[in-house]
Amino acid sequence: MSEEGLRTFCAALPKIELHAHLNTSFSKVTLQALVDRKIQLDPTFTSQKMTFDGNETAGIEESFSKFRQIHMVCNDAHAIYTLTHDIIHEFAADNVKYLELRSTPKTIPETGLTPEVYLECMLRAVRDCEEGGVDTVVRILPSIDRRNGVDVAYKTVDLAYKYAQSSNGVVCGIDFSGDPLVGDAADYVPVFQYAHSKGLKLALHLAEIASFEETHKVLQGTTVGRIGHGTFLHQCPEDYKDITQCVLQQRIPIETCMTSNLKSQTVSDYSSHHLEYWHNRQHPVIICTDGKGVYQTTVTEEYVHAARAFGLTRLKLWQLSLQSIDHIFADEATKQTLRRKWESIKPSFDFKDR
């Protein structure tokens, strides 16, 4: 398959994005506008580099250093609305037809930001995009940041539940994320159980690094809707081999983020990525970006990388995209609407690999 033909096919492909962090999914244009505004508001602010460019890689600590810089820029209602609004349009331009955006609702007294204001800004942007005719269904997952502690996590669950009731399903679950080098995910098992009892689905970052003990405890104590990254789930030492079997037997979908993992140095190259391990076992995987701005990628690019690394045919790429609908956190009616959309445009695609 020619490079040009592959890229054209992947760009036209209708796609699903289930692992997109709000604060790291900016475009360069949006980020520059927000940085310029930040400098106007605070002339003492010094902008630092917030993206990985080209083939640049660094340890996972460098990613979180960049994230902290971005959070300093995106710290008020205007920034949260602008990010959400622009990111939705950018994913729509990449033919993403269903998008789940995740972000930690923050309290920043000096800018008037509260968790409620934070979510309201995101929801207003979703409504404005919908009313403006953007052809992308958007859902929101409030994030539990593992650095903030269990007490804050419970408050995030209560907030998510409140807005799940009032947002007509736009808020539809919980994300668990944050620096995997900090704290123990197992401490949050009671929070996850509480969220599940509230009817909130759980997308949990697990085994992003080789943290087998906490991963084991979380899987044993929690009903997991999807796993974010799961980079080391298939590399468990003998004492934790049942982690891999648990994921396989329960068919827990894995949100794979190839470029993010490569640039954060948790995998060595695209062809070594764990997407292949799970795909070869007919296990559900969803091709995602993580933070398309920080890692300088798109969903289209991720499909191209997967095709090149693992020899995936055009038909297989289509099937990966279509099957991703099964694992969204929206209701069955939304899933059926999306499946009909895929089927309606399928006849326009050429599935010959040349």
Task: Give an overview of the whole structure.
It contains 14 helices and 8 strands. The model has no long low-confidence stretch (mean pLDDT 94). It has a single domain, classed as Alpha-Beta Barrel (TIM Barrel). The protein is 47% helix and 13% strand. An 8-stranded parallel sheet has the order 1-2-3-4-5-6-7-8. With 354 residues, the chain is α/β, with parallel strands linked by helices. α1 crosses α12, α4 packs parallel to α5 and α8 packs parallel to α9.
Describe the secondary-structure layout.
Blueprint: H1 3-12, E1 15-21, H2 28-41, H3 60-73, H4 77-93, E2 96-103, H5 115-131, E3 137-145, H6 150-166, E4 173-177, H7 189-197, E5 201-206, H8 212-221, E6 226-229, H9 241-250, E7 254-256, H10 258-263, H11 275-280, E8 285-287, H12 299-310, H13 314-324, H14 332-345
Parallel strand pairs: 1-2, 2-3, 3-4, 4-5, 5-6, 6-7, 7-8
Helix pairs in contact: 1-12, 4-5, 8-9
Please describe the structure with a list of short key phrases separated by commas or semicolons.
8 strands, TIM Barrel, 14 helices, 8-stranded parallel sheet
Quaternary structure of the protein: single chain
Number of helices: 14
Q: Into which percentage range does the β-strand content fall?
A: 5-15%
What separation lies between the terminal Cα atoms?
A: 4 Å
CATH homology superfamily: Metal-dependent hydrolases
How do the helices and strands follow one another from N- to C-terminus?
Answer: HEHHHEHEHEHEHEHEHHEHHH
Number of domain units:
1
CATH class: Alpha Beta
